[in-house]
Design brief:
- This protein is α/β, with parallel strands linked by helices.
- It has a single domain, classed as Phosphopantoate/pantothenate synthetase (Rossmann fold).
- Helix content is about 50%, strand content about 10%.
- The strands form two sheets. The protein has a six-stranded parallel sheet, with helices on both faces. It has a two-stranded antiparallel sheet with strand order 4-5.
- α5 links the parallel β2 and β3.
- It binds ligand PTJ.
């Protein structure tokens, strides 16, 4: 945060995430793995996929997000909610250090606006989010997913809160901690890259996001009920 990579509010967002991670058992569950497979299939089939990067993403998974971007041939675009002076440059440096060669969203003079959106996130790169058919939005605030859906984009979210607005609006919601989700997405990309187009389509067709979110909520309840510690036993006896 002191180096401007993460916004002050990013620390609060991180705490919100940790709370959900705790009740998810701090591991990638079956529902998250199913969402990851469908998400990678969608990204591999996309014409112009893009990965949106904010401060929290840059600080938590810099190397992995760059690797995923290469594997999927999906560029990285820095897109910030809090556009404090110096932040874009700080994040650009982190990504470049991690090996990124082409980063979108850094040339202010080129940016265009998404009029359906009022926050700073409305400023997008014409060659990136503006033109994309599939957008990966990790750790997102609510407004943008809704706006991007309205202008016809497919949205893949990574969000530990299963009932956030982003989670509910996204086409595919990966309910997992980004520090586990991105490495799992890298593994899945290597595996699914071997599949034919028709098999990737099947993977997306059989995936149902609403059911998957419900499955996650059930897993949370099951996880909490299975706690062996005494105070928990008292609650469920
Ligand atoms: O860097 P900026 O300026 O673009 O700002 C980024 C933040 C994250 C501050 C901004 O987008 C924000 O305020 O987001 P929200 O509304 O707090 O939403 C972030 C969501 O990510 C919440 O639902 C959190 O539960 C979730 N989250 C937090 N940490 C993680 C996470 N999801 C996955 N992995 C995490 N480590």
């Amino acid at each position: 945060m002191k180096n401007l990579i993460v916004a002050e509010a990013g620390l609060i967002a991180h705490g919100r995430g940790e709370c959900f991670d705790y009740i998810l058992g701090e591991k990638t569950n079956k529902a998250a793995k199913a969402a990851i497979k469908a998400a990678i299939a969608m990204l591999l089939l996309a014409h112009s996929p893009i990965i949106s990067v904010n401060g929290n993403v840059a600080v938590l998974v810099p190397n992995q997000i760059v690797q995923l971007s290469y594997l999927l041939n999906a560029p990285l675009e820095i897109n910030l909610f809090y556009r404090k002076e110096g932040r874009i440059d700080a994040i650009r440096k982190v990504l470049e250090k991690a090996g990124a060669r082409q980063i979108l969203g850094i040339d202010e003079s080129k940016m265009v606006e998404i009029k359906e959106l009022s926050s700073n996130r409305r400023k997008v790169d014409p060659e990136g989010i503006k033109n994309a058919d599939v957008v990966l939005v990790p750790l997102e605030d609510g407004d943008r997913t809704e706006a991007l859906k309205r202008i016809g984009k497919k949205i893949i979210a990574i969000d530990l809160n299963p009932i956030s607005r982003t989670s509910l609006w996204a086409d595919i919601t990966i309910i997992d901690n980004i520090v586990r989700a991105i490495p799992e997405m890298i593994r899945a990309t290597k595996e699914l890259k071997q599949l034919e187009k028709k098999d990737l389509i099947k993977l997306i067709e059989k995936y149902n996001n609403t059911k998957n979110i419900k499955r996650t909520l059930d897993l949370i309840t099951k996880y909490i009920k299975n706690q062996k510690r005494k105070p928990f036993k008292k609650i469920y006896s």
